[in-house]
Specification:
This protein has about 450 residues and is of the alpha/beta class. It has 3 domains: about 50 residues, Roll (SH3 type barrels); about 220 residues, Rossmann fold; about 120 residues, Rossmann fold. Helix content is about 30%, strand content about 25%. It has 11 helices and 22 strands. The chain has an 8-stranded mixed sheet with strand order 9-6-10-12-13-14-17-18, with helices on both faces. The chain has a 5-stranded antiparallel sheet with strand order 4-3-2-1-5. It has a 3-stranded parallel sheet with strand order 20-21-22, with helices on both faces. Strand 15 and strand 16 form a beta hairpin. The longest helix has 21 residues. The protein is elongated and about 85 Å long. The two termini are about 50 Å apart. Bound molecules: D-aspartic acid (DAS).
Length: about 450
Amino acid sequence: MIGKRAEFLLTDGAKISGRVMNIQDNALIIKLLNGYNVGVLIDEIKEAKELDEEESRDNRKEYEKSLRHEEHKNSGEKLKIQISIIHTGGTIASKVDYKTGAVIARFKPEDILKMFPELNNIANINSRLIGNMLSENMRAEHYNLIAEAVKEEIENGSDGVIITHGTDTLHYTSSALSFILEGLNKPVVLVGAQRSSDRASSDAYLNLINAAYFIKRAKMPGVYVCMHNSINDDDSVIILGTKARKMHTSRRDAFKSINTKPVALVNYKEKKIKVINKPTNTKSSGKLTLRRFNPKLKVGLLKSFPGINHELIDFFKDYDGLVIEGTGLGHLPIVENDKFTEENSRVFESLKKLSRKMPVVMSSQTIYGRINMNVYSPGRMLLSIGILGNFSDMTPETTFIKLWWLLSNYNTDKIRRKNLIMKNFRGELTDKSDESFNIIES
Ligand code: DAS
């Protein structure tokens, strides 16, 4: 069959046709009509049909006609932009292992094009693998690795980068990349999926194709997240990387924009982009510089709760920084009201000690809304011992990532003296809160 044109039906229902180039590690290497090579595992081929040259010529004519049609539609602009897809893993790059039923992260870069050839209608795609990891395993070293790969792709001429990533910690990574990629003048879009790409209900296709379409049409430099806007297969929502948060364990519209309206809604099927809230701080020097994380630093994220003991605060004494998820406007149990609350005074003393040693930053368990430690006297007590973050509307996760990044790139004294936690670097802070709770009708 080598050298022949053939059509293959795969076990997952996908159809592939092209010229069989050779056999490598029990996979057929097939050159698709668009010129890209894909590898198809022989044990994933259900049926194979040799195409005679005439028939395959018709296929090619069909493909070239569709390309001309696409080209005509994009008339007047460069037909194909260049988009790089960097794979890190997660459900989007996983398959169901039908022997165990578990979702396993196992994907080769070319799989994406094999499964979603329509991406080729939007851009020339090149694909590279950073890893096949579930995102709960991400560490700061990975943030630096991904940022280095993004810089390389942009310097090699990419007009934009898609990063496929697990959803659980996707908003930590989108924040981290926002801070590392200083002077970014291209769009970088993180895409995940709540259903593995080989399942009919997968949200991978819509998120990927809409991310590519956003990169091609919106021309908005910056770091973004692209996921479902609702449980339907219509729009994807584009959220600024420092304002995104996963808010549901399994819904496909799990990602919401916190304390600010989303950037846009994208619908490739209808060729529509509805810009809602264009980021203002996307002016870039055009010189992309990596301001990396220092993975050796130890930064904590502690959720306060009724009855918390001071030992928990003391635990962080050898850390470099701590973010506390306080309650409400930014409160912690530090006031002794009666004989049951003596421990609260010890919590306050421990906080005072810790705050002398390192930046301690307040965020809120409410997720939505803004910190304000001026309203109640306990909040003022926290301000009096140097707790930072007053008036912040960042999520706890973005606050944690920002503090780690600040400690990696500035000395502690400057962070405190210049109150850098409240300096707006990447749109992570807004000066007016969005009260709409982000229910965006598409
Ligand atoms: N474990 C999840 C992760 O990798 C799977 C997913 O949602 O992508 O974040």
